[in-house]
Queue: 2 jobs
Job 1
Amino acid sequence: MTDVRGGVYPFCRACTASSTAWRAPDAATRLSGMGSRFYGHRDVCPDCGSSVRTLYSTFLLIPVAFRGRFRIIRTGGRSFVGRRLLDRPAAVPAYSEEPPPSEFKDHPELVDATYEQAEAHWAARDSAGALPLYETSLAACEKVLRADDPATLQVRLRVAQALLATGDYASAIGWFELITPQLNRVFGADHKLTRIAVEGETGAQLMVGGPRAEMKLLSELVEQDEQTLGRQNPKVLRTRAALGRATMFADQLGAAVQVLEMTLADSIEGLGNSHPDTETYRSFLLEACEAADLRGKRKDRELSAAARHRRTLAPKAD
Ligand SMILES: [Zn+2]
């Protein structure tokens, strides 16, 4: 597939701008006679090949309710990725997007040619050429800047985008899961960079399929990297955290708590207790505990209570 930079992969820029992220509902209601079906096939895009289709809820295969219009790209067999069409293309935000202060200016040694070279490759749609240069640039940033310094976060986002564009979905999801909450906190939810991360994450998840397919892909990567890099390696931590998140979204809440607690413990050992990534993994664990308390079975709630106790997280609110 060609690299359609500028849009949310695999959609082109124009199709991305006229639509919004959407995850197809699970087709698990077939027994009840309820389902959904796309009708029509028009406005085929010459750039990305997507077409506009209309989704209806069906009952015994008969369309009964209009659900919306979507841009759809088939990804083989009966699977597809889709984006919901907007009535009007998203407006450019009117507020200023001044980045928060960075320590970058205090480190003249970071201003080298690598990042500019990476940007040149990226602009020329050569994601595979850009990726190792972004990674080099990021390693230099992380040596002297905080992991959640605005400058570091921008390079982290580029690495995630380049991984997505080169089709390494598992590694891309690991990065997007980690940096989306960090970008959200540092830049705000409405900032362009945060929105790029949210779109990128959704795009990567769409390419993989549902949370179960994501769990399989991520656990394979964890297993493979753990052998060579060790459990406390930042990449292994990222992938395992994303695996914990996917496990939570697959509603396996007790298992999610266990995976995320292991991630947090390894991150405290490997990166340190107050490292920004450790903070993010701690918030993931807390979120999984809350989900287990709220929707879990008794066993899930017990695992949550034990993890809260061991990790001195706030106990369950009554
Ligand atoms: Zn298109």
Job 2
Amino acid sequence: MKRFTFEPRCWYAMELISSEFGPNIRRFSPIQVYSVTPVGGGKRRLELSFYHAAYPAGVRDKLYTLQTIERTEHFLLALVVGTERIALFMELTDDWKMKHAPETVTSTVQSMPGPGSEAKLKDKYTACLLGGAIGDALGAAVEFMSRAEILNRFGPEGITDYAPAYGGKGKITDDTQMTLFSAEGLLRGRMRGVSKGIAGFDHTVANAYLRWLATQGHECRAVTAEKDGWLFQQPELHSQRAPGMTCLSALRDYPGVPETAGNDSKGCGGVMRVAPVGLYWRTFNGNSGLERVFEDGCMCAGLTHGHPSGYLTGGVLAVLIFELLNDKTLLDALGAAKILLVAERGHEETLAALDKAVELSQSGTPHHIAIQELGEGWVAEEALAISVYCALVAESFEQGIVLAVNHDGDSDSTGAITGNMLGAMLGTGVIPQRWLEPLELREVIEAVASDLWTCQEWHSFMDNDGLWERYPGY
Ligand SMILES: [Mg+2]
């Protein structure tokens, strides 16, 4: 007798049967098979890797281990190993789609994102963090030089390859260090959520920044953060790379309760480190929840920067990253961010800087003059505006990064923010090898990007070998 089998790249109907489902669970879904692998010889078990069309974007790649119960010509009935669920797989017919697939699912199937769409998105996570680190490392050697000095030393194209800084080529600075600790704070918040049921990230992000402070040889006066977790153990992070004075002083004075810093600083040390907020929320929220993305971006920057331009820029950048991962254009992403920005007190400076960046990008002004008009980037709204300008006019990843570091101002920070955006837009395929290979902490950065993606699969630290030690939930 002919028996039901899975073929890679083919669509099937899946129905899940369980007593645990509430009314909102997606029990019926079209799936597209990526691969099917028999496991455990003779036990009628198989591993099915597939695209789950009824799940929100970002969490559609699934891997089930199935224990066959019954297989006929027309269906396969199997236990989903590790759960109480039974899955029924059948041919995906038009009748079935009419009956079971709601409109959204039907349109997903029609748009056929196909295998690889999740991999493409995950690649953009990696590119976002690597891009930021590359811009940071390229700018590191020229952070405190004027454009004239840069051209004088590196020639008419400016700096286009890593030059020695902080003891070598391709060394990252505080921008990337703090970005990694932002990610750590979010991931440890996630761990706290899945293991203790406590939502919110402000405590865990603040604690992560206190660990960064400790890597710089300083301690907070009021509280001591635990020096644990995987990131703190990376020896290369224990190095001073011109850390921002506001970050150091605000964290030394951190009162032990997360709140917007009591200073009036709007240095770019807040906005430069918030890209992981956009990545983290993209993992969970698909196309909705921009308010939360904005709010958490502001929170992360605001822990050290108390001026509205110091923290609202963090909210804007987090939304930009989130929307770029949704394949929005940068102009559309800016539109979405501005709606949230203008509702906040003290938004005027940031809004004006962003509008000026867009206007200049469409004006035909020579790039170096346009960037000069936007400022030097030591303050947050200028750093964000210069970065937005560079990402808007960039014809390639490489050109955008080179533009972002060859100016009078804070080259590593504008390089980092521009790299975050271009990475989220373009993926890793466009990053030149000559920048990628010597990059300090490349594996750590890639691992953190991957963790920001896979943390959607964390359900309890009990099931995840070693994850609690990697990201303790406090
Ligand atoms: Mg720096």
